[in-house]
Design a protein that fits this description.
CATH class of the largest domain: Alpha Beta
CATH architecture of the largest domain: 3-Layer(aba) Sandwich
Mean pLDDT: 89
Number of domains: 2
Low-confidence stretches: 238-243
Distance between the termini: 41 Å
Structural class: alpha/beta
CATH topology of the largest domain: Rossmann fold
Order of helices and strands: EHEEHEHHHEEHEHHHHH
Strand content: 5-15%
Shape: globular
Number of helices: 11
Length: 300
């Protein structure tokens, strides 16, 4: 077999996006809004493990759905995802993958059942994980092979780490999901309680360049999904982020630095567009977004 190499190029990048938060944080609603932007009119499919309440937004968003019930074995999620992929959706929402971890019949219970089947001794504790983890791996590789975007909703809870002889360490809000499932997301946004879909980036698992697109404290919406879609298709995230509700001071400074734009160039553009303003910090988010758009256009 011969191997052929070519210059790498980002063209069609299926995204796996995680949304984690406690109840009433806006996970499901945000997932639908992001999915609409990602799909751009294409079909959206939903794998629903939340029962009837999983469809509370059916009057507002157009999508097809299948419901899964306990036992929430990884095999069931894999079968449902494969069925969803057969209809060629633009986006698949899974709400939620937490059931697969600690729900009735989920991986934790799956391991306990395997242990009991093997006699219940602690000596088989590790062996009892083999089948559940193999099933989880099958689900993960099905996700990774998907030719569409995936939005994974995850419940979250506050966790602490017990340290012998010392005070417990507060780990903050953590997604309820298998480590490997959470690992495969391109980023996971933490939605605090009653945040109405506005993520807290300080506790979210982010990476470049998405930390310049998504703003902390701003509700996730269709424009967020559209900007992600543009990036996944090969567009520059810097050129789209500024039009999605503006830029915070930190985001603006980071884009300027990463683009190699000098302070004099930035000041000149600021004075041309907003002669009455002395500093970009005095602008609104939308104003900073406009300055960046012009700087990016000139630099291009």
């Amino acid at each position: 077999m011969s191997f052929h190499f070519r210059p790498a190029r980002r063209e069609h990048t299926p995204l796996i996006i995680g949304l984690a938060g406690p109840t009433k944080s806006g996970k499901t609603y945000s997932a639908h809004r992001i999915a609409q932007g990602l799909a751009s009119g294409g079909p959206v499919a939903m794998i629903n493990a939340e029962g009837a309440k999983g469809h509370q937004y059916a009057d507002e968003f157009e999508y097809v759905a299948t419901d899964i019930e306990a036992p929430f074995r990884p095999e069931r999620y894999t079968e449902a995802l494969k069925a969803a992929l057969e209809i060629k959706p633009a986006v698949v929402i899974i709400d939620s993958v937490s059931h697969m971890h600690d729900g009735p019949g989920g991986i934790l219970e799956y391991q306990r059942d395997e242990k009991e089947r093997m006699g219940g001794s602690d000596r088989v504790n590790f062996t009892a994980w083999i089948k559940p983890k193999a099933a989880e791996n099958q689900f993960i590789y099905t996700m990774l092979s998907a030719d569409c975007h995936l939005v994974l909703c995850m419940r979250a809870k506050e966790k602490i780490k017990i340290v012998e002889g010392a005070k417990p360490i507060d780990l903050g809000w953590q997604p309820i999901a298998g480590e490997r499932v959470a690992f495969e997301t391109i980023f996971t946004l933490l939605l605090p309680p009653h945040s109405k879909g506005a993520p807290d980036l300080s506790i979210s698992e982010m990476r470049k360049p998405f930390d310049t697109l998504i703003q902390s404290g701003r509700q996730l919406d269709e424009q967020t999904g559209a900007a992600l879609r543009e990036w996944a298709a090969g567009g520059a995230i810097e050129a789209t982020a500024a039009t999605r509700g503006g830029l915070s001071v930190d985001q603006f400074k980071k884009l300027i630095k990463d683009a190699g734009i000098t302070a004099d160039q930035g000041a000149e553009m600021l004075q041309r567009l907003f002669p009455e303003v002395a500093s970009s910090a005095d602008l609104t988010d939308e104003g900073r977004g406009r300055v960046w758009e012009e700087l990016a256009r000139v630099a291009a």
